[in-house]
Design a protein that fits this description.
The structure holds two protein chains of two kinds. By secondary structure, chain A is mainly α. Chain A is built from 13 helices and two strands, in the order H-H-H-H-H-H-H-H-H-H-H-H-E-E-H. Chain A has one domain. Chain B has one domain (about 5-435). Mean pLDDT of chain B is about 90; it is low at about 445-450. Classes of the chains: A mainly alpha, B mainly alpha. At the A-B interface, helix 3, helix 4, helix 5 and helix 13 of A face helix 3, helix 4, strand 2 and helix 14 of B.
Chain lengths: ~350, ~450
């Protein structure tokens, strides 16, 4: 592996998508858990826990998409046109989710709020599931034509392996969201949320084991890199230790460390995914020669260089003010008249 | 209908809907900076109350802008994959820069704007307002760079790759500052300021008519009118310079603006008319001969390139471009007249009593929106049949693997979802306007100052 511009952009796009998973992951997870809170005030607290940040979290997806377009236009074109109906669904889900967050608090009627609650929760679950299914298909490989166009069908995307990855992603986001809620709540709701953390850890662990086994058995190309470079097993080890550390930290009441552990687990999972994909971006399941790699799918090295300058200027700025905004809104949620 | 038509319809629908919101955000952003800045300088509780009320409206506008914007960003790849492959090297960079430099700034600081009143100092809050406003302007800059490159490509060369020909950057500076970027950007930004200003003017005029929140309404109206007047005149200047650039860079579009077919003849300026594309002339028209030539070059005898210089297959749909362009110009003139009239009545202290003018101003809120839509239509339809002017035809840009059925399904779905979004937006906007500025914002700021 040479550390060239193409590799740097492979990593950078990965970092953006990981940023998206870490951040929007918890607010999608909070959405998935929303209906488990029964009282209106509890639901409002959950909504306001993500209130100031969910919008910014979603920008990571938009920027990740933009970076993919700029750095690897063929991947952007193949995947976005190939996964057409799935993406239309994802877009509609994201729209309804945003609408539900914005509109729920505007009327006090119970039926109004219940309708938006259900819509918020369903769209959060569906978005997580669709993102996971997309990831699962990329891991599994999709049929491509010689001209790199997608050769599969919408129903073909709903294969068992991808569905398992979709469910695992949803479970992961639910666990991540539950831990985030522990940080943001107090009182009776806090105690309740602690229970959810335990349940979601169990749910995620089961999914994790199933996905790992399915990958080892049926998707052997996703473990080749680690097999041939045993040192990379450290990443898998880190991933497992980070997951195992979450219940430990929760048990000791070190909630923030539990959240960091959960972030580390997600980052390690994404890293594993990237390591095993490299240098493919979309592996052709029918003929490896048709695969989109970081070389045949990329923009010119001149553009990658310009974009790198943009990233070097922009990303530290983004990280700095994103961090300060999270700092401004640190601590437990208190409802006031600006709240949702 | 075929895939191409459906994909174009879907793009038109989604961009038209999306484009209702960003101009409002940009315009309101500027007005918020003025209002909150005035509060910091004068410490008048009224300015505080105004900022809070308009921040609330801003939040609603922004939310719908974001969700409809994600669709736009996905759609290039979904429906226009061949186009994306061809332009990704150039166009993608501008989109990615928009994400990095604009979207994070806007959405991040918006949190403080909406929810941070009690968590940060007034100065930090004002800083956040400035950042959100800047973010919305940065966003306009990068998207106009991308779109202007489609109109007047520069700083690229065509490279044959294993996956076919594509445009690659040779000079990023030339891509960003392509021949039409600056004129189109200033035209779009002043339109956005105008759009935001007329919303503020409209709501304030409504309150004055209903004799509610009068002090709040007078102060908002004053700021709104000032920005509207400034932006309306700026529109005249930037509109003119944009047309001059179009004449130099996209002659077929300019000829379509005025239905000018003849080769080697001076161009007339039509006040109105109906282009007969069969007989290649403008019917029912009132025109000033030579005026188009004079506006472009300062010489009324100078020939203007006519549509006959282009093969029929290289011409845009002339009448549509003609009508949308003329309607936009007509509205632009109306808006100048309205802002002048409003300002005159204001200066003479009679606006508040002049019921008819207030009613006109209430409904004038729709005019900049209409002009924005018409302007985009004439700019984008005027570029046809090219998706990248002179380089790639629209019919060659569409995705190869997406069928008519799928596109029709998504078109219907988006149409329904947007209809619902629009109804909800109007409902909530109406709700917020009827509720009006909160009295406690006035008292709270008053206390903060006196203590």
């Amino acid at each position: 592996m040479t550390f060239d511009l193409y590799t740097i952009w492979f990593i950078l796009v990965g970092v953006l998508l990981t940023g998206y998973a870490l951040l929007d992951g918890f607010d999608l997870g909070v959405g998935a858990l929303h209906l488990f809170a029964r009282k209106d005030e509890e639901r409002r607290i959950m909504l306001n826990a993500i209130g100031p940040v969910w919008d910014g979290n979603e920008v990571w997806l938009v920027t990740g998409g933009g970076a993919l377009f700029a750095a690897f236009p063929h991947v952007y074109a193949t995947v976005f046109s190939g996964f057409y109906l799935a993406l239309v669904l994802l877009l509609v889900m994201l729209i309804f989710r945003a609408v539900a967050i914005e509109f729920r608090s505007k009327q006090p009627m119970a039926w109004w709020r219940r309708a938006w609650d259900v819509s918020f929760s369903v769209t959060s679950v569906a978005s997580s599931l669709l993102l996971g299914v997309a990831l699962g298909n990329i891991a599994w490989g999709v049929p491509l034509r010689a001209d790199h166009e997608f050769a599969g069908t919408f129903l073909g995307l709903l294969n068992p392996y991808s569905l398992i990855v979709g469910i695992t992603t949803t479970a992961l986001f639910m666990m991540h969201g539950a831990i985030y809620l522990v940080l943001k709540t107090d009182g009776a709701l806090h105690d309740k949320v602690r229970g959810w953390v335990n349940n979601t850890i169990i749910f995620f662990s089961i999914c994790y084991v199933i996905t790992t086994m399915a990958t080892l058995l049926y998707v052997p190309h996703m473990v080749v890199a680690i097999k041939t470079h045993p040192v990379l097993f450290c990443v898998a080890l880190l991933n497992m230790l980070a997951i195992a550390n979450i219940p430990r930290e929760i048990h000791h009441g070190r909630d923030f460390y539990a959240f960091l552990s959960s972030c580390a687990a997600m980052a390690a999972l994404m890293a594993l995914f990237g390591i095993d994909m490299f240098p493919d971006l979309v592996a052709a399941s029918n003929n490896p020669a048709y695969s989109l790699t970081i070389y045949n799918a990329a923009s010119s090295s001149k553009t990658l260089g310009i974009m790198l300058v943009i990233a070097i200027v922009g990303v530290p700025l983004v990280l700095a003010y994103t961090a300060s905004i999270y700092w401004v809104f640190r601590g437990k949620v208190k409802l006031d008249r600006f709240s949702y | 209908m075929d895939v191409l038509t459906l994909a174009r319809l879907q793009f038109a629908l989604t961009i038209a809907f999306h484009y209702l919101f960003p101009p409002l955000s940009i315009g309101l952003g500027l007005i918020l900076v003025i209002m909150e800045g005035s509060y910091l300088v004068t410490k008048r509780a009224l300015y505080h109350q105004m900022t809070r009320f308009w921040v609330n409206i801003f939040g609603l506008v922004f939310a719908i802008g974001v969700v409809s914007g994600i669709v736009m960003e996905f759609q290039f790849g979904m429906n226009w994959a061949a186009y994306s492959r061809f332009v990704g090297d150039v166009f993608g960079s501008a989109l990615a820069a928009e994400g990095i430099f604009a979207f994070f700034l806007e959405s991040g600081f918006l949190a403080i704007l909406l929810f941070g009143w009690d968590r940060v100092s007034p100065k930090t809050h004002f800083f956040s307002t400035v950042m959100v406003s800047l973010g919305s302007i940065f966003s306009a800059i990068w998207i106009i760079v991308a779109n202007s490159w489609q109109q007047t490509p520069a700083g690229y060369h065509i490279v044959e790759t294993a996956s076919g020909p594509r445009a690659e950057v040779t000079s990023f500076f030339d891509v960003v500052f392509n021949p039409s970027t600056l004129d189109r950007l200033s035209h779009v930004l002043s339109a956005a300021f105008q759009t935001g200003a007329f919303l503020v003017v409209s709501v304030s005029a409504f309150y004055l008519l209903k004799k509610r929140h009068t002090e709040f309404a007078r102060a908002s109206l004053k700021i709104g009118l000032m920005v509207a007047l400034f932006a309306s005149f700026l529109q005249l200047i930037t509109g003119h310079s944009s047309a001059v650039v179009v004449a130099a860079t996209q002659p077929a579009k300019l000829a379509a603006f005025e239905g000018h077919y003849a080769q080697n003849a001076p161009g007339a300026l039509h006040l109105f008319g109906w282009v007969n594309e069969h007989s290649e002339r403008v019917d029912f028209s009132v025109a000033i001969p030579g005026m188009l030539s004079w506006l472009i070059s300062g010489d009324s005898q100078k020939p203007v390139v006519g549509l006959k210089s282009f093969a029929p297959g290289d011409r845009p749909p002339v009448n549509l471009v003609f009508q949308t362009y003329h309607a936009m110009v007509g509205i632009g003139m109306t808006l100048i007249a309205l802002s002048l009239l409003g300002a005159l009545y204001w200066l003479r202290g009679r606006l508040v009593q002049t019921t008819w003018l207030l009613w006109v101003l209430v409904f004038a809120v729709s005019l900049p929106q209409l002009a924005n839509q018409l302007g985009w239509l004439s700019a984008e339809v005027g570029r046809q049949p090219w998706i990248v002017y002179g380089l790639l035809r629209t019919k060659d840009g569409v995705s190869k693997v997406v069928g008519a059925g799928e596109t029709l399904a998504s078109l219907i779905l988006f149409a329904l979802v947007y209809l619902l979004l629009f109804v909800l937006f109007i409902y909530l906007l109406d709700h917020k306007i009827k509720k009006g500025p909160a009295a406690e914002d006035f008292e709270k700021a008053g206390k903060a100052v006196s203590s």
